[in-house]
Design a protein that fits this description.
Layout: H1 7-18, H2 29-38, H3 44-51, H4 60-63, E1 82-89, E2 97-103, E3 110-116, H5 136-144, E4 148-153, H6 162-177, E5 183-193, H7 197-205, E6 218-222, H8 296-302, H9 305-310, E7 314-322, H10 332-344, E8 358-366, H11 369-372, H12 382-393
Parallel strand pairs: 3-4, 3-5, 5-6, 6-7, 7-8
Antiparallel strand pairs: 1-2, 2-4
């Protein structure tokens, strides 16, 4: 088998036994070699083509075919044992939608796992057709592990705190309504990825701005920057987008799309991706790290760090080996967050207790693969996250 196997050929190779076993539970070697070839960039399209064969045959398009006027109710049961409530409204914006995944045997009082995506905020990835299988994978994974899962569709805002307000609205809706789906609104853990860490950082860092404060027990930040001010301006150390001139380019390894904000795989229905927009993860123009020149008062107002020093929310930081700008370890920003928050608890600070975050370095994973691997035999990332999620919601 060569290192260039992708798509159907890769799937056949994995099924033939050339991949991992449940005992090894790591990134399959053929996939890892392709991730290395893609490079330390954000390449949703080519990564989706690698991971789609590890997912079930059904996905969103099985239920709502591209271009169809309405979904096919007879095909609503996509995954054995899992019931999905699609496109539940939590706010006034047309994109204020969540998908809820629960066990067919609903029960009651189950912990709740909220997932906030990166990129343009789509709860279904839509750069290429293969990407439509994600992030239902996180929903299935959570249900199999005893959670009710909520995947959030977020939208871009205008003001610096709009993203945080959007997240607050989603969490408030979940807390008020999740018992209808067997969940316990007092046991919520949330995960955000990449650009999604911007608004969730604002959410945790500014509880005074939301009607009901911060209503989660734990927060997992994957490959992002929840506290943009943790390093001095211009210090770097937070990772980057990759794909610069002369370096690896998105789409190069699979003839995929170069524009990572594209919608070549746009689905039909309320979850459809809008026209491509400029990337960003904060709360809108003028947020921390934005292009607008801020006064000292504005910088202080928007700083997430004071809120993190006060919060009771437990924090986990995840960084992938093949993330842009990473060189063998957590980033300088990750380490600074850890050091600063652990210092709040004094010399006896311990990771995972008090304010001191847990840090996890995802070996053999990329910026995109770490979230696409959920509900696959590779538990490199999902198992530590599951352990953390259980610990804060027990």
């Amino acid at each position: 088998m060569t290192r260039k196997l992708i798509g159907g050929a890769l799937s056949a190779a994995l099924m033939a036994g050339a991949a991992i076993t449940p005992a090894s539970a790591q990134v399959p070697e053929p996939i890892y070699q392709q991730l290395v070839k893609i490079g330390q960039i954000v390449d949703v399209g080519c990564t989706a083509k690698l991971y789609r064969p590890l997912m079930p045959a059904n996905d969103y398009n099985t239920w709502w075919a591209p271009g169809a006027a309405a979904p096919d109710a007879s095909k609503a049961k996509l995954y054995p044992g899992v019931t999905i409530a699609r496109d539940q409204k939590f706010g006034a914006n047309a994109r204020d939608l969540v998908d809820i995944f629960r066990s067919d045997n609903m029960g009651s009082g189950k912990p709740v796992f909220i997932y906030v995506p990166g990129g343009g905020g789509n709860k279904l990835e839509q750069q290429v057709r293969e990407a439509n299988a994600f992030y239902d994978n996180i929903g299935r994974w959570g249900v199999k592990n005893g959670f009710v899962v909520v995947t959030v569709q977020r939208h871009q805002g205008t003001n610096w705190d709009d993203g945080g307000r959007d997240i607050a609205s989603a969490v408030d809706w979940v807390k008020a309504n999740i018992s209808k789906y067997g969940g316990d609104g007092s046991k919520i853990v949330m995960t955000s990825h990449s650009a999604g860490t911007g608004p969730t950082g604002v959410y945790v860092g500014h509880p005074e701005r939301w009607p009901n404060g911060v209503q989660i027990k734990g927060m997992i930040y994957m490959s992002g920057g929840p506290i943009p001010t943790i390093l001095p301006p211009g210090a770097g150390g937070g990772g980057g987008g990759g794909g610069g001139a002369g370096g690896p380019q998105p789409g190069a390894t699979c003839s995929g799309p170069v524009n990572q904000g594209g919608n070549q795989g746009a689905v039909t229905g309320p979850s459809a991706a809008p026209a491509p927009a400029a990337p960003g993860g904060g709360g809108g123009p003028g947020g921390p790290g934005g292009g607008q020149q801020l006064t000292a008062e504005q910088r202080a107002e928007r700083d997430n760090l004071p809120g993190f020093k006060k919060t009771n929310v437990k924090v986990m930081l995840v960084r992938a080996e093949l993330d842009p700008g990473v060189s063998g370890d957590m980033t300088a920003a990750d380490k600074a967050i850890h050091t600063t928050l652990c210092a709040v608890d004094g010399p006896n600070a311990k990771d995972g207790t008090g304010h001191c975050p847990v840090m996890f370095y995802a070996k053999r994973h990329s910026h995109v693969s770490e979230v696409f691997a959920f509900d696959s035999p590779d538990t490199t990332v999902s198992q530590p996250i599951l352990d953390f999620a259980r610990s804060v919601t027990k």
